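Hey all, quick one. A colleague (J.T.) asked me to put the pyridoxal-5'-phosphate job into the tracker so the inputs and the structure tokens live in one place instead of scattered across chat threads. No bug as far as I know, just bookkeeping. Sequence used:
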Amino acid sequence: MHDALQKELATYEKRTRKSAAAHKRAIERIPLGVASNYRHYEPYPLFVKDGKGSRIHDLDGNEYIDHNLCFGALMAGHCHPAVVKAVEQELHRGTTFGMPHDQEWELAEEICKRYPVEMVRFGSSGTEVTMHGCRLARAATGRDKILKFEGSYHGLHDTVLVSVKPKAEDYGDPEAPTSVPGGAGVPQASLANVVVAAFNNLASVERRFKENPGQIAAIILEPILMNVGLCLPQPGFLEGLRDLCDKNGALLIFDEVKTGAKLAWGGASEFFGVKPDIICLAKSIGGGLPLATFGASRAVMDLISQHKVFHGGTYNTNRAAMAAGLATVREVLTRENYAHVGILSKKLTEGYRAIIKKSRLQAYVASAGVNGALMLYPQEIRNYRDWTKIDVDLWRHYWFGMVNRGVLAQPYWWDEQWTISVQHTEADIDNHLAVFEEVAPALAKAQQERGASVGAGGH
Ligand SMILES: Cc1ncc(COP(=O)(O)O)c(C=O)c1O
């Protein structure tokens, strides 16, 4: 570990003593002391006191400009007044009935207006809806296998918790990657139904279809790979996948848990002009409450109407989440707000680029919609294996350096990216950039001393 990183870690520990104590207590009862493995990092995670607008406070009272925003679930920002008002009203009318109500049709209409789907069902998490999306595709095609990309994350069910962060010694042929379980407990039998291909590599996808003739039900992908920082599809890649699905009788599933709200008003289909068969949405469509949905054409969704595919869930369409969802699509994710965050995103991205150039840091900024990431690698990454070469200690230096100066530049982990909320202001972005300007020269210096291509990757 280089000296400058050690110094930042020492400062972090000095500033966040209450988080350290809270973590010490939590670890006795909660594995790793956190509710999701993604929230754990060394030496211990920040514990939050509260959040409002674009800011949060930790237990020690330090304030941060928040670009973590719950791993991108809060394009609305914290406590958006429209969301708070809608949820508050609902709390007095009963939150959950397990019976149909009017908000369901209203939100279904809103979703079908924005995204190229004709019918939807609702749930509470991204994991749930990608699971139902895969099941629907299997039912629609009568096939069992799902093709996913190496390095992509689609939640926690057995079909997709495969080759998420595989180790180099396990991942095999770059064009026909081995299906590697994403942890113990994923059955060997389910691995047989998961075919892995390389992102941005149509030849790899074509080969996988040939090796599994008439067996692949669907390709599931994030149109922008956001589990490796931010990796854009190369021109023609999404169109090529659409063609390959059509030629091979498979469905195309867009996991838009992240991109759906944050990329554009109409998500990735609008942004890239490619229409999938099934869309899965979660995170920012709920304005901070647990809300998710999956949708497709009437013909595909009718598999549920005909009682061929089973879908359920006690908390589906609970009224607090639905009220938040309605307020979010009607009052937060508006065309005007997309224009506002578009300006902020441009400012942040261009500001980072100028600072990178000035400080001679070997890095680039990848950006799309309200998301972006500092990629500590000299050239654009195209897939998971490129990403594993990112200099992890340098990234930690960046993250803790920013945190120590009041900017939560993104969630912890170098596979994540920043989010800008509708409540961020130009002043927030100026502040963020001023802090990066302070940190960047130290990063460049450490990079030179360490040699630019120290590799690591995986967590
Ligand atoms: C692209 C993608 N799909 C699915 C999921 C799973 O969503 P959830 O954590 O709500 O289950 C995530 C979560 O980070 C995600 O980023």
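Adding what we noticed when we looked at it: Residues 71, 125-127, 130, 153-155, 222, 255, 257-258, 282 surround pyridoxal-5'-phosphate (CB under 6 Å). The chain has two domains: 3-75+334-450, 81-332.
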